[in-house]
């Protein structure tokens, strides 16, 4: 029997999931995710210029009539965000982000500014080659300037070098590309091997095995993935430090929307990790997810107007027993 609520080792599992998330940064992501692309297209099709989010906290079981503005995002006419302003409940600005893009939609500039002091905490400038691959990146990471160079061989990644403020090499990634395998050796600093990664691909280019080995030779992380004939991931097995930790199974509807994630831990415990419901247009109506150390699930319930534009999200965060209603207002291009 599969229980909807997991029973054992909540804090331990939450810590494990955090470790897995930290390891995940080593994967290089190119372009937008499918959900990001869909959202951008929806914003452009509806000619949305500004989305404002309002927070209505619950009191005595009901959301407050008057909410406060938590964020304001401005988009260009292609659906790309160009400005995000985040607010405190007092109305003060907590931070600002700005974005710029080239004519093909590649991000060329990103700036994060602290709202209180007005200081730039992160700056990123990116240039691309004729094939829309990243070529160079420079900016400021909050402590010092940095620079990154990207190299390719026959269109495939061959090297990434990250430089610190003094123009010294901080980290170098060297790629060896084979038919069904990518090996990445990470040097930190330039000539000292820190760890290696191996990514095994299937015939369609899906990563079916992802391994990280430390310079000692020990395998610190290993993922094994399975995909269906629509290239949707249906299973992921996670190993840390050479030990099996958990496996997840992903179920989709006929449109390819994720409807449920089931998890089996190393001790044999089985539970539903997350569940999703959609309307006939593919809009997400309900999301439930397990936080790892709670006997209840957090939950989001979304409502849309007849055009499929999100108008509110009623949210419950189980670990904090906290409810908040997010309402969305819009300004449109003429």
Give the N-terminus to C-terminus distance in angstroms: 55 Å
Question: Helix count, per DSSP?
Answer: 2
The sequence of SSEs as H and E is HHEEEEEEEEEEEEEEEEEEEEEEE
Structural class: mainly beta
- From the alpha carbons, calculate the radius of gyration and give it in angstroms: 22 Å
Number of strands: 23
Explain what you see.
The structure is a single chain. This protein starts with 9 loop residues before the first helix and ends with a strand. It is globular and about 60 Å long. It has a 22-stranded antiparallel beta barrel. The chain has helices at residues 10-23, 34-45, and strands spanning 48-59, 62-63, 68-75, 81-87, 93-101, 107-114, 120-128, 134-140, 145-153, 156-163, 169-177, 181-187, 193-201, 207-214, 219-227, 233-240, 243-252, 258-265, 270-278, 284-290, 297-304, 310-317, 322-332. It has 334 residues and is mainly β. The longest helix is centred in the N-terminal third of the chain and has 14 residues, at 10-23.
């Amino acid at each position: 029997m599969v229980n909807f609520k997991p029973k054992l080792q909540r804090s331990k599992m939450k810590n494990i999931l955090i470790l897995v998330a930290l390891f995940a940064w080593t994967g290089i992501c190119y372009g937008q995710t499918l959900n990001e692309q869909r959202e951008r297209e929806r914003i452009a099709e509806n000619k949305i210029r500004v989305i404002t989010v309002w927070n209505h906290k619950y009191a005595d079981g009901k959301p407050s009539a008057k909410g406060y503005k938590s964020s304001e995002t401005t988009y260009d006419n292609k659906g790309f965000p160009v400005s995000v302003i985040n607010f405190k409940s007092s109305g003060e600005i907590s931070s600002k982000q700005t974005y710029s893009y080239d004519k093909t939609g590649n991000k060329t500039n990103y700036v994060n500014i602290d709202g209180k002091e007005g200081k730039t905490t992160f700056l990123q400038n990116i240039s691309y080659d004729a094939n829309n691959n990243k070529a160079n990146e420079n900016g400021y990471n909050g402590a010092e300037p940095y620079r990154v160079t990207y190299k390719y061989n026959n269109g495939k990644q061959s090297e990434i070098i990250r430089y610190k403020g003094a123009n010294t090499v901080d980290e170098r990634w060297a790629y060896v590309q084979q038919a069904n395998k990518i090996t990445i050796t990470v040097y930190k600093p330039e000539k000292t091997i820190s760890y290696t990664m191996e990514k095994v691909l299937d015939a369609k280019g899906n990563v079916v095995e992802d391994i990280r080995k430390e310079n000692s030779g020990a395998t610190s992380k290993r993922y094994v993935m399975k995909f269906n004939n629509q290239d949707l991931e249906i299973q992921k097995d996670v190993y840390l430090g050479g030990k099996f930790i958990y496996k997840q199974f992903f179920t989709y509807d006929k449109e390819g929307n994720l409807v449920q994630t089931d998890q089996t831990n190393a001790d044999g415990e089985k539970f539903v990790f997350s569940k999703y419901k959609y309307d006939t247009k593919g809009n997400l109506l309900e999301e439930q997810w397990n936080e790892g150390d709670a006997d209840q699930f957090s939950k989001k319930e979304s409502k849309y107007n007849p055009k499929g534009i999100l108008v509110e999200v009623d949210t419950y965060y189980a670990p904090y027993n906290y409810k908040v209603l997010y309402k969305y207002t819009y300004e449109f291009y003429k």
